[in-house]
Amino acid sequence: MKEKNELSKKWESLTFANNFLFCKIMESEPELCRQLLELLLHIRIEKLQAVQAEKTGMEGMDSKSVRFDVYTLDDKRVFDIEIQTSAKKNLPKRARYYQSIMDILNLSHGEDYRNLKESYVIFLCLEDIFKKSLPVYCFENICREDQDIKLGDGTCKVFFNAKDCDKMENSEERCFFEFLKGQKAQTDFTRELEKHVNQAKRNVMWRNQYMTWQQSIDEEVEIAVEEAVEKAVEEAVGKAVEEAVEKAVEETSENTARKLLKNGVNPQLVAECTGIPLEKVLSL
């Protein structure tokens, strides 16, 4: 009962930055997702064909699978929006892999490469993963020798840094990231998002899904911690036993060497019989 009450309190305190709420709202409100993409990328989108939360994809049976937070596309572009509340490592390589899977999902066997859609991988980060204090980091492939030459492969990776959103020139964009950080909604768009967050918290089905999902995660974390502790204990005990055995063997060998030496056995022979270095035998 206590655990259930804690999960209920956690549900009530969730913000739009929560992965579960973010994905649910974006999937159920494609128009809001369209507006968000236009705001973030400064492009025009007529209509999104589909918005899928937690869509999975993989190249082959032996390949690493991916789970896109919010996956969507229009006639000529495909988008992946990832909400990143913690500063995890390897986000750049994760973006690279996500983009490769997006290409596979959007190009059928035998199709010409020119049919590949432009692809955008977008990370909404609460922290500055590059530590350069820029509010946004946008990456496209360019020529090293002449940076005016773009590869033109139609790929773009964008990492937003909510921590320094006060440096964003666009006020709508700035207000969105302030809202993402838990501050008051100040624009029509963020007020609309806030309305849907409040509505989501009254959705009994979503609430039950979240509590089941969070409980499962908590159990997995608890199991992982227990396994890590057990492994650490086993390693510590194993090391202690190993050291104790080594010490016992060493003491036994030295005692044997002393007895042999007392009986007038040649030190060289004692060293060969006990495995103790000759220098140490002589010191005994």
What would a concise description of this structure say?
The protein is α/β, with parallel strands linked by helices and 284 residues long.
Please render the helix and strand layout as text.
Layout: H1 2-12, H2 19-28, H3 30-41, E1 50-57, E2 66-73, E3 77-84, H4 91-105, E4 118-125, E5 136-139, E6 155-161, H5 171-180, H6 188-201, H7 204-262, H8 267-274, H9 278-283
Parallel strand pairs: 3-4, 4-6
Antiparallel strand pairs: 1-2, 2-3, 5-6
Characterization of this structure:
The structure is a single chain. The chain is an alpha/beta fold. The protein is 51% helix and 15% strand. The chain folds into two domains: 2-202; 236-283, no CATH class. A six-stranded mixed beta sheet has the order 1-2-3-4-6-5. The protein contains nine helices and six strands; from the N terminus they run H-H-H-E-E-E-H-E-E-E-H-H-H-H-H.
User: If helices are DSSP runs of H or I spanning 4 or more residues, what is the number of helices?
Assistant: 9
Mean pLDDT metric: 86
Output the helix-strand order.
HHHEEEHEEEHHHHH
Rg, rounded, reads 30 Å
Would you identify the regions where 5 or more consecutive residues have pLDDT less than 50? none
What structural class do helix, strand and pairing data support? alpha/beta
Q: What separation lies between the terminal Cα atoms?
A: 68 Å
What's the number of extended β-strand segments? 6
Tertiary shape: elongated
The largest sheet, given as strand count, sense and whether it forms a barrel, is: 6 strands, mixed
Helix content: 40-55%
**Count of domains:** 2
